[in-house]
Write a structure and sequence with these properties.
This protein has 352 residues and is mainly α. It has helices at 8-24, 31-46, 58-69, 97-109, 114-118, 123-136, 138-141, 168-174, 176-193, 198-201, 207-212, 216-230, 268-274, 281-305, 311-327, and strands at 54-57, 144-145, 148-149, 154-156, 161-164, 245-248, 263-266, 331-335, 338-341. The strands form four sheets. It has a three-stranded antiparallel sheet with strand order 1-5-4. The two termini are 28 Å apart. It comes from Albidiferax ferrireducens (strain ATCC BAA-621 / DSM 15236 / T118).
């Protein structure tokens, strides 16, 4: 069944309701923010640019919750001025159940990453518990705002399943960076406004990085592995590296998720110049060729660094990013002060 793409008016209505959700909803915990991020990410990674529906299981969403909250189940505040290290409280009442479940799992099994956790037989019980919490709480209450229920995002589709409504997958894909930005900024404010976090936060200035970005230790491990794989050269300009940045090939600002196959080593100057821009055709071709030849090695490097590693997801995200840029008349970075328009030829890189 073919579904018509949302009209301009339909997309504006979606954004209006999304804005109302953030301003008029009751956020007693951070679960609703996590659910919005998870739905937007899964729409990009599993969906398509059409007006159709997208079926998701609560276990798929639960797995994304585990990945999002995994680092947040560790103490925050170590080494900060006037801070007492502790796990941040993410509920207005008792600690959020997902945080408690992950923290207990980490302590019992001594695993440092979600990837290592997935290999344990006990992980399925953790996933089942988190999926049950997701089903009972944010999935039930996310679409309640302004004193009413507006089922504009998804509806239940049987036991353990939800279905994004027609047009929602398209809108989540198109406005994914905005959804991420809104959810993350409100998430940070929610934690800061909880009085029980005052002693933990101290004079915090890196809370957002702690909540959502890879740790410095993970980036250093990623850099070490990439040096062994790619050699001592900048991915973009090809010259020898002295100092190196671990750069997101698809910019973090466009898709704020740390994925092993999306990382490359770059000169700090190349990294700053490219900034939040997609890379031009020759660089994209080189990156895709690298995925084709070194996917397994990048997976091993990522797993050792504690990063999510999935080559197909990384390709899907890149395809989504360039398609979005094409529809918006975007330009791609080739070298400092050198850009080229993103045109229809870019789609060929993903079909070759």
């Amino acid at each position: 069944m073919l579904h018509q793409l949302p009209s301009a008016e339909g997309q504006l209505l979606f954004l209006s309701k999304l804005q109302r959700l953030f301003s008029e909803s009751d956020f007693t915990a951070t679960y609703k923010f996590a659910l919005l991020i998870a739905l937007a990410d899964l729409a990009v990674e599993l969906g398509a640019d059409d007006g159709g529906e997208l079926a998701l299981s609560t276990r798929q969403i639960g797995e994304r919750f585990i990945q999002i909250y995994w680092r947040q189940a560790l103490p925050y505040g170590t080494g900060l001025v006037n801070a007492t290290p502790g796990i941040l409280i993410q509920n207005n009442g008792t600690q959020a159940a997902v945080i408690s479940a992950i923290a207990a799992f980490r302590m019992k099994h001594g695993v440092g990453t979600p990837q290592l956790a997935r290999a344990l037989p006990e992980y399925q019980a953790l996933l089942g518990s988190v999926a049950q919490t997701v089903s009972a709480q944010p999935l039930n209450y996310l679409q309640n705002f302004g004193g009413m229920t507006d089922v504009f995002l998804f509806e239940r589709a049987g036991l353990g399943k939800v279905k994004l409504k027609p047009g929602v997958m398209y809108c989540l894909r198109r406005f994914q960076p905005l959804v991420q930005q809104l959810a993350r900024s409100h998430w940070v404010n929610h934690i800061k406004s909880n009085r029980r976090n005052i002693s933990i936060l101290g004079q915090a200035d890196d809370l957002e990085d702690f909540l959502f970005a890879a740790s410095r230790q993970s980036l250093l491990a990623m850099a070490s592995g990439l040096r062994k794989l790619d050699g001592e050269k900048c991915f973009y300009c090809g010259t020898i590296l002295t100092n190196a940045d671990v750069d997101h090939f698809v910019p973090f600002s466009q898709y704020p998720r740390d994925l092993a196959h999306n990382f490359v080593l770059a000169h700090p100057a190349c990294n700053r110049s490219k900034s939040d821009t997609l890379a031009a055709g020759p660089l994209l071709e080189r990156w895709l060729d690298r995925l084709g030849h070194h996917a397994d090695s990048l997976t091993e490097i990522g797993q050792a660094a504690g990063m999510i590693a999935d080559v197909q997801v990384s390709r899907q995200i890149a395809a989504w990013g360039y398609t979005s840029a094409l529809t918006q008349g975007g330009h791609a970075w080739l070298a400092p002060s050198k850009y080229e328009p993103i045109d229809q030829s870019y789609s060929g890189y993903f079909t070759a």
